[in-house]
Amino acid sequence: MTTPTTTLGAVNSMLSTIGEAPVNNLNSGLTDAETAETILNEVSRSVQAQGWNFNSEPCLTVAADTDGNVVLPQEVIRADLSNNKYRSTTNEYIQRGNKIYDKRQHTFNIGKALTLDVVVLLEYEQMPEVARRYVSVQAARVFQERVVGSDRLSSYTRADEQAALFALQEHEGDNGDYNIFDDYSTASVLDRNIGTKVISNGSSF
Fold first, then answer.
1. What phi and psi values does residue 69 have, to the nearest 5 degrees?
2. Which of 7, 147, 153, 175 is 20 to 30 Å from 189 at the Cα level?
3. Is the separation of the CB atoms in 176 and 54 below 8 Å?
């Protein structure tokens, strides 16, 4: 029976690209396995930071804390004002570290809740299989290039990586529910307030 890819499975696939035997667990002590897991996490963060339908949370309202700071949940890796691009050419609020910064007032003291579109970092097993596949194949290519550096092996892995990316993009198109209302000119006219999710500072969503 075929099951979704696990972190251990991804690491073992990466090890196979350099001819290493698989490990039974992630605490094997094998240096190459530890390196593979580190690279897998690096690539996962890089891919997810691009923002996909599966790891995006639109209209998340984050309350200010007692100091007036809007502190982002720890899993948020990117945040922007919801629909701000349709309302103004100047974004006064930007993400700096894990907080929102007011560029006009030059302060972190926002003093009010903000509704944000955020991108969150998911654990490997929380991603859909098509995203896991792309991350693991890209990580395998990076791992192989760092450890062995064979151009011949890398070319094969790059072909697999491109196919995995196409599959992820197709999945994104199928599940993103994109339509004409995502267009700037249409959204600027038809933009309306929609339901939001509210969290208090420091809580998970």
1. -85, 135
2. 175
3. no
